[in-house]
C-alpha cells in the first residue's frame, strides 16, 4: 500500500526523465508566474506519500499547503466522490436544492465555535479567498459600515479585496490600485518584539498599535470587522496569544465590530481542534464569523462561511452566491472528511503528532544555533531559522537550501514567514509513526549537514 511506504529516491537525479518531460511541458504551456521550485511530478498519492512517474517516493509535509489533513486520496473520500458522481455532478444551489449542501451546512453549524445562541448558518463558496471576501460582504451588510481592520503578516487570498487584506505586497505587484477601506494593525509576533518592548509590555504595546488605527485611519464606528488568523499561515505559523484575543474581543464588543477568524489554513484539525477558534471560545472570546476551506473537502474546491443566523440573515438576496459554491461532489467529500475525523480520532492524532514534533524541534533548538524559534498549536508548527540569535537576522538562504536538500532525500517541505525563513509543518494527520520518524530524521540530518558547511 502506497500510504504505508517510506520515502525513496531511485533516480540518479531529480527530476527523473519522465518527470522532467512533464516539467518541460509545464514551462512551455503554463505561465512562469505560476512558479514551482520543486522537482516533483505527481503520478499517484495516498496518505502522506507521493509517487512520481519515475517511481520515486516522497513524504509530503506540505499537504497541498494544508489541504490534505486526512491525506491524499483517502478511500472514504474517493468512495463518496464516486457515489455522488454517479447521481449528479452539479446543480447551482440558487436554483435547486441538494441534500449534500444542506447536510454539510447542518454539521458545520453544529460544531462551529462562533458567538451567538448556537443557531448558526453556513454559506459555501469554492476557496479560501472567496469565503474571506464573502465574510467581509456579510460583515458590511450586517453592520452597515464600510471599513475593515486586518493585521501584519496576514494572508487572506489573491482576489482584489483579499490581496489588499494580505500583508505581503509582493502578491500585488503591478496590479494596483487596491481596494479601499482596508486598514492594518500589528499582529503580536512575540519572537520579534520591537527593540525596547519587554514581554511584560507586549500586550499593551500591540493594543496601543491597534488603537492608532482608530485614530489615524478610521474611527471605530466605521469599522465593520477585524479579520485575523488564529495561527498565521503564510506569516510564519504564529499563534495569536489568547490574552490579546480576549482584549480584541472586548474592543470589538465595545465598538459594535464583528470579529472574523480566518481558519482557511488552521482549521479542520490542524491545531488539535476542529477549529482553532475553540481555543478562543475557551476564554470567552469566540469569533462572530469563521471562514474555512483547504482541508474541508480533502482537495476538492470548497470553502465555507459560518456565523449566527442573526448575522447571516441580514444579507440581502443576491449579495452572496455563485455558480459552483457548494458543488455536490465537493460537499460529498466534505461530509466524508467529517466522518473520517470522528472515526479515526484525528483530532487526538493531531495533538499527538504536534507534541512529538515540538519535543524534537525544541531539542534541535538547543543543538543548532541556526534555529531561533519553535512555535505552533497542535500539529501546526513553525521552525524559524536565523543566522544570529542575538540579531535574529533571518536565515532565508539557509531555508531555501534546506528545502532543496530535503526534497533530494524524499521529504517535501515549504517555507513561510515574512522573510521566508520559517519551515512549516503541514503533514497529513494520517501520517504513520514510522513515516514521521523518517521525516524527522531527514530534516535533522539536512539541518546538520547544511550547518556544518
Topology:
Blueprint lengths: L16 H13 L14 E3 L2 E3 L5 E4 L2 H4 L8 H11 L13 H13 L8 E6 L2 H16 L3 E5 L8 H6 L16 E4 L16 H15 L6 E6 L2 E2 L5 E2 L2 H14 L2 E5 L14 H5 L7 E4 L10 E6 H4 L15 H16 L2 H22 L3 E7 L2 E9 L4 E2 L1 H13 L2 E2 L1 E3 L5 E4 L7 H19 L2
Parallel strand pairs: 3-16, 5-6, 5-7, 7-10, 10-11
Antiparallel strand pairs: 1-2, 2-3, 4-12, 8-9, 11-12, 13-14, 14-15, 14-18, 17-18
What portion of residues is helical?
A: 25-40%
Return the CATH topology of the largest domain: Aspartate Aminotransferase, domain 2
Strand content: 15-25%
Uncertain residue ranges: none
Question: Major β-sheet, in short?
Answer: 7 strands, mixed
Shape: globular
- CATH class type of the largest domain: Alpha Beta
CATH superfamily of the largest domain: Type I PLP-dependent aspartate aminotransferase-like (Major domain)
Distance between the first and last residues' Cα: 38 Å
CATH architecture of the largest domain: 3-Layer(aba) Sandwich
Amino acid at each position: 500500500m502506497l500510504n504505508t511506504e517510506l520515502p525513496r529516491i531511485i533516480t540518479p537525479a531529480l527530476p527523473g526523465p519522465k518527470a522532467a518531460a512533464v516539467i518541460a511541458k509545464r514551462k512551455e504551456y503554463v505561465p512562469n508566474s505560476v512558479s514551482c521550485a520543486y522537482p516533483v511530478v505527481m503520478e499517484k498519492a495516498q496518505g502522506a506519500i507521493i509517487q512520481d512517474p519515475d517511481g520515486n517516493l516522497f513524504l509530503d509535509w506540505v499537504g497541498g499547503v494544508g489541504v490534505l489533513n486526512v491525506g491524499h486520496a483517502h478511500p472514504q473520500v474517493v468512495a463518496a466522490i464516486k457515489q455522488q458522481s454517479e447521481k449528479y455532478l452539479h446543480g447551482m444551489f440558487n436554483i435547486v436544492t441538494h441534500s449534500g449542501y444542506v447536510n454539510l451546512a447542518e454539521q458545520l453549524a453544529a460544531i462551529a465555535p462562533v458567538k451567538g445562541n448556537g443557531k448558526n448558518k453556513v454559506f459555501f463558496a469554492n476557496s479560501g479567498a472567496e469565503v474571506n471576501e464573502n465574510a467581509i460582504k456579510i460583515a458590511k451588510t450586517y453592520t452597515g459600515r464600510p471599513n475593515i481592520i486586518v493585521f501584519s503578516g496576514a494572508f487572506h487570498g489573491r482576489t482584489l479585496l483579499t490581496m489588499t487584506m494580505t500583508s505581503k505586497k509582493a502578491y500585488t505587484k503591478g496590479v494596483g490600485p487596491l481596494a479601499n477601506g482596508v486598514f492594518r494593525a500589528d499582529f503580536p509576533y512575540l519572537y520579534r518584539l520591537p527593540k525596547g518592548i519587554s514581554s511584560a509590555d507586549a500586550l499593551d504595546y500591540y493594543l496601543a498599535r491597534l488603537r492608532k488605527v482608530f485614530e489615524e485611519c478610521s474611527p471605530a464606528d466605521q469599522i465593520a470587522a477585524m479579520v485575523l488568523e488564529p495561527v498565521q499561515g503564510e506569516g510564519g505559523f504564529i499563534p495569536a496569544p489568547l490574552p490579546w484575543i480576549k482584549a480584541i474581543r472586548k474592543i470589538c464588543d465595545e465598538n459594535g465590530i464583528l470579529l472574523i477568524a480566518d481558519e482557511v489554513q488552521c482549521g479542520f484539525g490542524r491545531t488539535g481542534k476542529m477549529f482553532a477558534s475553540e481555543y478562543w471560545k475557551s476564554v470567552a472570546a469566540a469569533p462572530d464569523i469563521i471562514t474555512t476551506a483547504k482541508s474541508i473537502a480533502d482537495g476538492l474546491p470548497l470553502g465555507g462561511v459560518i456565523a449566527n443566523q442573526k448575522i447571516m440573515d441580514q444579507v440581502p438576496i443576491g449579495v452572496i452566491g455563485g455558480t459552483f459554491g457548494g458543488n455536490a461532489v465537493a460537499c460529498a467529500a466534505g461530509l466524508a472528511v467529517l466522518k473520517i475525523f470522528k472515526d479515526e480520532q484525528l483530532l487526538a492524532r493531531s495533538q499527538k503528532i504536534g507534541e512529538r514534533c515540538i519535543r524534537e524541534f525544541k531539542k534541535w533548538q538547543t543543538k543548532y544555533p541556526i534555529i531561533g524559534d519553535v512555535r505552533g498549536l497542535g500539529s501546526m508548527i513553525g521552525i524559524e531559522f536565523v543566522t544570529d540569535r542575538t540579531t535574529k537576522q533571518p536565515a532565508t538562504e539557509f531555508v531555501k537550501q534546506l528545502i532543496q536538500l530535503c526534497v533530494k532525500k524524499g521529504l517535501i517541505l515549504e517555507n513561510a514567514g515574512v522573510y521566508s525563513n520559517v519551515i512549516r509543518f503541514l503533514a497529513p494527520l494520517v501520517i504513520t509513526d514510522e513515516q514521521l520518524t523518517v521525516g524527522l530524521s531527514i530534516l535533522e540530518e539536512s539541518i546538520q549537514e547544511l550547518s556544518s558547511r
